[in-house]
């Protein structure tokens, strides 16, 4: 199983479209159910952040900041900020099962579609430790 992280709004708009990739690539795609609040605490996690609670943008966590805050890097422009815990939430994880080459192709196609809606998603994945070959990054 491999996974990619995308903005929640992209996942909701794309849900139902995964069947085409499943058919073409002989993979199984499923969306992790986000229940309640799962906090982001460690450096290197992909999440979403908002400064106005209306628009959410992809971020990579850099680690804790001052008490009650998290240091983040915005995926869209690479700038850094320190935000309160209420401004940060987990991103949607989409999981892919199947043979490694087909899984990788599905992940890349999901990320390309997500990148068209929200710049920086590919960059956020490229910054993950063990980008290729670990469960955290691609394949």
Written overview of the protein:
It is built from four helices and eight strands; from the N terminus they run βααβββββββαα. The strands form two sheets. Strands 6-5-4-3-7 form a five-stranded antiparallel β-sheet. It has a three-stranded antiparallel β-sheet with strand order 1-8-2. Helix content is 28%, strand content 29%. It has 139 residues and is of the alpha+beta class. Strand 4 and strand 5 form a beta hairpin.
Briefly say what this structure is.
The protein has 4 helices and 8 strands; from the N terminus they run βααβββββββαα. With 139 residues, it is an alpha+beta fold. It is elongated, with a radius of gyration of 15 Å.
What are its keywords?
139 residues, alpha+beta, 5-stranded antiparallel β-sheet, 3-stranded antiparallel β-sheet, 8 strands, 28% helix, elongated
């Amino acid at each position: 199983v491999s996974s990619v992280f995308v903005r929640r709004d992209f996942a909701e708009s794309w849900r139902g479209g995964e069947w085409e990739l499943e058919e073409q690539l002989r993979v199984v795609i499923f969306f992790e159910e986000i229940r309640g609040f799962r906090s982001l605490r460690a450096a290197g996690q992909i999440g979403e952040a908002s400064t106005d609670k209306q628009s959410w943008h992809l971020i990579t966590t850099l680690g804790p900041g001052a008490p009650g805050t998290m240091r983040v890097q915005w995926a869209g422009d690479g700038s850094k900020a320190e935000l309160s815990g209420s401004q940060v939430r987990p991103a949607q994880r989409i999981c892919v099962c199947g043979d490694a080459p087909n899984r990788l192709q599905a992940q890349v196609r999901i990320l390309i579609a997500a990148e068209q809606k929200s710049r920086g998603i590919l960059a956020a994945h490229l910054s993950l430790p063990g980008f290729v070959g670990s469960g955290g990054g691609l394949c």
